[in-house]
Amino acid sequence: MVYAKLPRTFQIPTPVGNYAPDWAIAMKKNDVKHIFFVAETKGSMSSMDLPVIERTKIDCAEKLFNSISTANVKYHKVATYQDLIDGMNTIG
């Protein structure tokens, strides 16, 4: 398992501007690579608390990664630490 603070130069292009997630966790289990991007570590992931442009960038990044997920590479979205733990625990 790799847990990394992503550099600001790691950016995901979206139609409304580049989006830079804060952290990433990558792990491999049973020949499947699982990638968890931690979108925000400050404040809340609630769409009511994020600026519209930031919420739109996150939504676009999620659609991109869901579209390129395969049987061997899975993208997961987490909003809280508990979501991360629960997601990692469900990987069989």
Task: List the defining traits of the structure above.
single chain; 92 residues; alpha+beta; 4-stranded mixed β-sheet; 2 helices
Can you put this structure into words, describing what you see?
This protein has a 4-stranded mixed sheet, sandwiched between helices. Helix content is about 30%, strand content about 25%. α1 links the parallel β3 and β4 (about 75-80). The protein is globular. The chain has 2 helices and 4 strands, in the order βββαβα. It has helices at about 50-70, 80-90; strands at about 1-5, 25-30, 30-40, 75-80. The model has no long low-confidence stretch (mean pLDDT about 75). The protein has one domain (about 1-90). The chain is α+β, with helices and mostly antiparallel strands. The longest helix has 17 residues, at about 50-70.
How many domain regions?
Answer: 1
What fraction of the residues are assigned to beta strands by DSSP?
25-35%
Radius of gyration computed on alpha carbons = 13 Å
Question: How far apart are the first and last residues' alpha carbons, in Å?
Answer: 15 Å
Number of strands: 4
